[in-house]
Design a protein that fits this description.
Helices cover 66% and strands 9% of the residues. The protein is mostly helical. A two-stranded antiparallel sheet has the order 1-2. The two termini are 30 Å apart. The structure holds zinc ion.
Length: 216
């Protein structure tokens, strides 16, 4: 799943108005932020295999440290604890931890059975990605709902808050549809370079957008 994760980050702003959208995005996407780093480091591996699912040509050969249920429980506990130590409050910190874990649930729905419960353990996945149209319906509905919640929970302080938000949404949608319509990536290196650069850009962009908006 891709923009479905961001939907939860947007929606979480309503429950935790003091937490920056950048941190909410980091939480719901932590698995996909760590993954390209671990692939680059040789700890996890991916293969380009066109046709492996209808939606993506990526074969997630091994990603126990970024995408297993147990690892995400630990990453969630770590990020949630860090938030708590930095004064985020128990409720917001728990929400951040839950967002980290939500990545596993959404990926479990999307992926073919390649999602580990724990490193080396059984692989699960409901395979929504076997249908492009079903994937689009589920993700766009989720994304639309998340956006609606965020847009109602915050308002722009200035024109930056309005246009940066619109640009962020447009960027996510364009990146999503380019992924759907484009061919397979040229190499594994291209995958992790784009993954790391995209994550950094989205964290910076969401931080900037959120600073120019305020909770209602
Ligand atoms: Zn993922």
């Amino acid at each position: 799943m891709f923009i479905g994760h961001f939907a939860l980050g947007f929606a979480a702003k309503r429950a935790a108005p003091t937490i920056s959208l950048a941190l909410l995005f980091t939480a719901c996407q932590l698995a996909d932020i760590l993954w390209p780093v671990f692939v680059a480091a040789g700890l996890e591996s991916v293969r380009i295999a066109p046709g492996i699912t209808a939606f993506t040509p990526l074969d997630f050969v091994s990603y126990p440290y970024s995408h297993s249920l147990v690892a995400l429980c630990l990453w969630g506990a770590l990020l949630g604890s860090a938030c708590w130590l930095f004064g985020a409050g128990a409720r917001a910190s728990l929400l951040v931890a839950a967002l980290v874990l939500s990545h596993w649930l959404l990926d479990f729905v999307s992926h073919r059975p390649d999602m580990p419960i724990y490193p080396g353990g059984a692989l699960w996945g409901l395979g929504l990605w076997n249908s492009v149209s079903a994937t689009l319906i589920v993700e766009l509905l989720l994304f639309g709902t998340g956006l609606w919640v965020y847009a109602r929970a915050t308002r722009a302080r200035d024109s930056v808050g309005r246009w940066s938000f619109a640009g962020l949404v447009a960027f996510l949608l364009i990146a999503y549809f380019a992924n759907v319509a484009g061919g397979p990536p040229p190499s594994v290196t291209a995958i992790y370079v784009a993954g790391i650069a995209g994550a950094l850009l989205l964290i910076a962009w969401s931080w900037w957008t959120d600073r120019h908006r305020q909770p209602i």
